[in-house]
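Good morning C.,

I know you're traveling, so I'll keep this short. The sequence:
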Amino acid sequence: MVHDIGLAEELAQDALVAALEQWPESGVPDNPGAWLMAVGKRRAIDRIRRTQRLEGKLEEIGHRQETEARDRPPEFEAAEDPERIEDDLLRLIFTACHPVLTAQARVALTLRMLGGLTTDEIARAFLVGETTVAQRIVRAKRTLSDAGVPFEVPEGPDRAARLSSVLEVLYLIFNEGYAATAGDDWVRADLCQEALRLGRVLAGLAPGEAEVHGLVALMEIQASRSRARTRPSGEPVPLAEQNRGRWDQLLIRRGFAALLRARGLGGTPGPYVLQAAIAACHARARTADETDWPQIAALYEVLAGVAPSPVVELNRAVAVGMADGPERGLALLDAVADAPALRGNHLLPSVRGDLLARLGRIADARAEFERAAGLTRNAPERGALLDRAAALGEP
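The tokens, ready to paste straight into the viewer:
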């Protein structure tokens, strides 16, 4: 009757539900099978009628749109299409990044509602407490409600003003996928792929924005290492130990192309272009020993001036430690060790352990790796840190 097995099964289940609801009160009919068949047929007729009404309505709407399109001036189409955001999720992210909110509140709210990240994951991204993030989200919702903000996609200058927040949201989603805050998986490939997809869409919508291409370049190059970043057991593989033959060369080429587009637009390099340039240095090295650490350290110094943060200083300490020796790296690291943003973060003792091990301070290094393992809530990462501590030998 409906020529659709799935729909027929659904209608039969509807009939069974009706029987379970009605038979306890009315009693079981003389012919239960015929009763079920009759109910199923009635449901099918109702469904067909609804479908026919819907098709009629759709035909009417389609005819109206065709008429409007035919009557619309050609120049209107030309002006409208380049502005339209076809991707539903990207459209929602632009909408949620409203200027009535602070930049931090916009990003936190968007990550929670549209990115699907937990307050815990967002807290790690911002290097703040979970309670702080929860309060930001509550205040952001109240602010939008009190201001009577309409839920609509911004256009023109309003959209451009929200671009930096949208970029931040995409990169934070990518980072959570690249190294998960907690759980049994260190990598959440679905988050990385979605952030990269949205970044590519955004690059098509904003071809003249260097930072958009810089972010895409950064994500492409980082994503190229996905297959080499974890062991079969799921534990992370340090960059220096990765099998570079497993890096995805297509993604690397795409990343280089995006970086060239960003540089070709001129202007002072922003944080995403600089981070992409650092990622490109790693991608160009055929072996870990061929890594141009002096160039990477110099790029981090520029990045620290453009977008200063404790995390940038931590990464800079790693680069300087490789370029100029672990003593210099340790000195830079100790200079930011008391930063509140790094308190409770496992990356600080992890990097410190590596520098101390290279200085031959084995007992101190072991203690730092064990401290880092105690701070992370990601199981594979904890295992890798404990392995590094164990590899240094017993005290």
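Safe travels,
E.
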